[in-house]
Every structure is written in structure tokens, then in C-alpha cells.
Amino acid sequence: MIKSAASTTRPAGPRLARRGRSTFATAVLLGACLFSGWSSAASATSPATLPPSARAEALVPRSALFKAPTYSDVQISPDGRQLAYLHPLNDVLNIWVAPIDDPAAGVPLTRFDKRPPDSFQWSPDGRFILIMKDVGGEEHSQLWIANLAKGTVVNATADPEVQTKIVKTSARRPGEVLVGLNIRDRRYRDIYRINLDTGERTEVYRNADDYIDIVADPDFNIRLGVRGNSDGSSTYFRFDPGGRNELMTIPLAALRNSRLLGLDGKGQLLMFDSRQSDKAGLVSLDIVSGVRTPMADAKRADIVEAIFDEKTGALLATREDPLVSEWTVRAPEVQTEFAAIETALKGPFRIAGQTPDNERWLLLETEPGRPDRYWWWNRKSRTTTALFSTRPELDRAALAKRIPVAIASRDGLTLPSYLTLPTGAKLRADGMPVTPVPLVLLIHGGPWLRDELSFDSQHAWLADRGYAVLSVNFRGSGGFGSAFMAAGDKQWSGTMHNDLIDAVDWAIGKGVASRDSVAAMGLSYGGYSTLVSLSFTPDRFQCGVDLAGPGNLVRQVSDMPVWWTWQRPQFVNRVGDPATKEGAADLMRRSPIARVDAISRPLLVTNGANDPRIFPSQSEEIVDALKVRGKPVTYAFYPDEGHVYAKDATNISFAAVAEHFLAQCLGGRAEPYGRDLVNSGIEVRTGASLVPGLEQALAKPEGSGPE
């Protein structure tokens, strides 16, 4: 949807401000050759609750749904001559580089053989690509420097215990990068300048004042330091020649949707800011005078993306995502252009990049029922040209469409949500199933993140297996304003969970599902919420799939990794304080481990050995407690993974276990295991016998031949 608004101009700064891409099991706590058809796969079960058409159709293979995207994170080089993107090499995502007008001629720049990059970006002169990647999921990000001319890729951090953050790149310092490294003190980062040609690093700022973040200008001058406060707020200090002077404080209520985008050489700070409104708008702040200049007010949700004219710096449009992503045009001269894009595409879009000559935009389109796709938009001819499908293997698959729905909570909030109905389900005139089907409540992590409409492998997978899938942006989710997020403060297992129950009741009331055919599933906070579902409301769910969810909130807040120290005040104020008797009691009251006796339905748990956010001991505590009580629990452990599983083999293998678990619980379909557990590293430490066929698949994978 396109809307119009007044025009304005930005200070020099980032060309594009946008949110990052999603990963497999959506969201972390706190915090990418066409087949002519699908080979038939026999289903494990064919329950009467499934539509006849769905029972008869072949399954979309897990291997196609859960391997990494074929093309993702496409980026235009600074000179506009090349593209860089993530693409598999020997089943691991690597960075490829291609001529901008011949993407099929791409060649791999990196050859990582175990884990893919977490992110990457071009250096300002295009001679290098800067890569962030950890070793085994520990989130100790290493900076790798890829030299395009030499074809070399060097680890510039070179210490798996050190965490790196890119502080600044600048066209004024094209051969260097400013980074923060926690070498001296694991809690805080000192600032170093790294020569991209040689890898030599020089300390430029010793962070003796324990700032949690540093802001630099294009000349690499340290201009601002950020200090975290005990009430969860953050205070910004200006580094003046005569000392430090306070610039602003972002209160806890505004902290998650207020975000700095860049600082130019004249001291103009560009940011999304919700300090003076509920929704985050775009503002410019003069760090010397303190004058705050609004550039674009939010309309219906937080502004999450802004695009500027590459040549003039004028603000062209901003994007919000209240339920379906929508653009507000801020410059009248592009009103008809944005309308033309909307007409040319079949779904909402993001602007992923623009060429330096301002003649082409790179669009990422979400069309319900299809993988996301990249397009070129020619600004002169007003035409689109297809570039990449993110998952071409799925382009011909019969994928279910996600439906945006607004659900009312019992106390009057509107919960932006997304419903996917089973592939082939027969529908009534109102779009709901003629016969109720099993429902999986898929709960996002964070909890201060959100669900959105972009392609989701889990929705497509579960709908293909015969389930309706419902994802709910419960109170506390991000992107919908400060008040909506604050409504979740200290409401873990409280009104946050009520929102999920209200959404399930909505689905039951609409005839989507029956009360006795609902499962809960989620990662991180979503895993915690799954445990809450089975322990606080055990009569409402038939089973649960917990991916790295904390069962003990006292331990969760107390046992944060040392490099998370800066974030602890946010948890203490939003979740609870284990350091006080009252706080610890409240946290334990909201902890599933304290209600483990109430869990009676089957539970599938998974965790990675290197997870720094939810330690494996959290999963082990809940699993052991259930085992002692003779409760049905299965525990799948991965010794070489972190919080969000990065390897294709891991994601495919866990999906295999989970769909057979759900098939027994809810009666959906399941693809045979085949060889999907082979080379995945999976260790089923408890309860393999409780999942149909799992013991046999672990002992002798199908198609493996005689031993």
C-alpha cells in the first residue's frame, strides 16, 4: 500500500535504513534449476481431519524447505558494477560475486565449509567485502576481510573468544574499518582501526568509561559514547574537546524502536526516534546544538525503513509494517513511481538497494504462496526485470498462502497475526476451512521481535503437512509502537500468554481448528512460551515443540554471558530482577520448571551445545524433571550448533523429527526420514522411542543399504 506525505531532505548518511533478514526458526531471544515436480513421499498418517485433497498430494520435501535460500542478501557494489550475494557452495552458504548485468556468471568469493556468514557488507571503495561470522554458534563474531583483487579471505579478529562489531566504514577512509573488540574486557569494547590491505590494527580509543556503544563520524573521530543505566535506559554523551557532555537519554520504553542510522561529518545524527511519540519516526539530531528536526512521522506502526535519493539526499519514502508492509511517499515526484511499482508486483516489497546512478532499484517482493523474489526496477522505463527467486526449487511447489489477520485480545488490544491454512483445504465463503483442521501455534522469539508476512519455511512446511499455522504478534512484540511493547513488561506467562490463548480461541471460533487439536511451537522466547503453554494451560494444547526455550527465568536473567552485561538492566526492568527476594519469587512463579508437575502432554525439546543465550542446562533441567516424573519428553541435542541453527543438515534433521512428533500428536502427514538424519550431528538423548520411526532412523537410515 502506498501513501503520500510531505517532502524533506536528509543529512548525509546511509542510503538505506532497513531491518535485517529473517532466519530459519524465526527470531532469537533478545535481542538466506527448477524441478519439474515433486517425487512422491508416503505419509506417515492420513487422518480424517485432513482435507482429502491434502491427503492425496505428494509432500514438498524437507530438503527443499529447510535448506538455506539459494539467493539471499543481494547487495550492489559501491561502483554499481557488481552484485554480491549469499549462495550455497558445497551445501554451505558462501558469498558470491557477479557482474551486475550477468548474475549467472557469479563466482564464489568465500569457501567456508562449516558455517555460513552471519552478515557481510562492501567496503566503501568496493575493493573488499567485510564479513561477520562466528566459529560454532557462540556469537563471538569474527571479522573476515575478503580482498576481491587477491581472492584472499583473512580472519582479522583471529581469536574465537573475542567478539567484533563494525563501528564505522566511510568513503573518506576507504582502506580502513573502525571496529570494537572486547579483548581487554569481555563486557565492553575498545575501538580499533584496521587496515583492510594488511589486517594491521591500531587501538584508537580505550573504553575506560565502560560505554556500551560508540558512535564515530566519517573521519573516524569518536563523537558519542552510550552508557546503559540501571533503569534500562541509555544515555548518549558527546565527546567534546573539553570533556563529555550529555546529549540525550533514550528511556527504556523507547529503546527498542529508537535506533541510530548514521552520523555525518557535520554532526547530524539520523535516527528512528520514539522519544516524543508512541511510534518511531525519522528524525535528524544536531549533536552540537541538540536541535531535533522531525523528517517523517510514523502513521500506523514504527518506521522500519527509509529510502533517500542517491544524488540529492532527499527523503523519498518510508516503510512501516502494521500488518502488511506499506510505504508512505514523502516526495511528490515519486508518488506515481511507487504506485507503478505496486501495480507491477504481486505483493508488498522492500527496497534492498539502488545503483549509484540512481537509475535502478533492487526490490525484494513477498508474494503470498511463493518464495520471496528479487527484481530490478528501471526508474526511467518504469519496468521490472526478474533477478532471483530466493528459493527457485520451490517456485513450482503448491505452497499455502499466509493470510494477515487482526485478532482482538480480551482487554482490547489488536494483535497483528498471520494464518496459513493447509494446502488444498476446502474453504467456506469466508475463507475458513469447511472442516476444522489441526492447528500449530508458531510463537516468535525475542520476545521484542515480531512476525511478518515475508516467506516463512515453517509456515509452508506445516501447512503442507496438513496443519493450519497461526503466528501472533502478542504484546511485547516490536514494530507496533512503544506502548504495545511496554504492555508486555513483566508479563511473561501473564497477559503475553493470554494473547496467545485469545488467538487460539479466535481460530477455534472461526472454525479453523477444534479445541483438542492444537500444538505450540517456538524458538527462544517462543520455546519458553511453548513450555508455558504446556505447564500453565495444559488443557489447551496436545503437545509442544520447544526450540531452546528457557524453563527457569531466575537462571535466565542471572546467568547471562558476560558480553551481555550491557543488556541486563533491560531484562531486569522488563522481565524481573532475580537479585531481590520479591523479584526472584516472581520470576520463579512465571517459570515452567516450577510447574513441571502440570505438564502431561508430549514435549519435544532441542538445543545446541554452543548456545550462548539459552544454555543447554536450561533444556536439560526441564527434560530431567520430566523424565523423573515419567512424563513423555524427547530431547534432540546438537553438539556443533548455537542458538539459531545455521547448518542445513541440522535444520532438515530437526524438521524430520518434529514432523513425525507432530504427526503422532495431531495426526498430520510426515515425509519418511530417508537420510535426513545422516551427518546432522543429532544426538537424541532422551525419548527417541516416543517419536514414530526415530529409533530406526537413527540406527539405520532409509536407503543406507546393508551394514
How would you describe this structure to a colleague?
The protein has 707 residues and is α+β, with helices and mostly antiparallel strands. Among the domains are: 79-170 and 174-217, TolB, C-terminal domain (Neuraminidase); 402-552 and 591-699, Rossmann fold, CATH 3.40.50.1820. It has 14 helices and 39 strands. The termini are far apart.
* Structural shape: globular
The top level CATH class name of the domain at 402-552 and 591-699: Alpha Beta
Instruction: Tell me the distance between the termini.
Output: 59 Å
Just name the CATH architecture of the domain at 402-552 and 591-699: 3-Layer(aba) Sandwich
What helical percentage do the residues reach?
A: 10-25%
User: What fraction of the residues are assigned to beta strands by DSSP?
Assistant: 25-35%
Largest sheet geometry: 9 strands, mixed
Q: If you consult CATH, what is the topology of the domain at 402-552 and 591-699? A: Rossmann fold
Going across the major beta sheet, what is the strand order? 31-32-34-33-35-36-37-38-39
Low-pLDDT residue spans? 6-56
Write the CATH homologous superfamily of the domain at 402-552 and 591-699.
Alpha/Beta hydrolase fold, catalytic domain
- Discrete helix count: 14
Structural class designation: alpha+beta
Number-wise, the strands total: 39
- Summed over residues and divided by their number, the pLDDT gives a mean of 92
What does the radius of gyration come to?
Answer: 25 Å
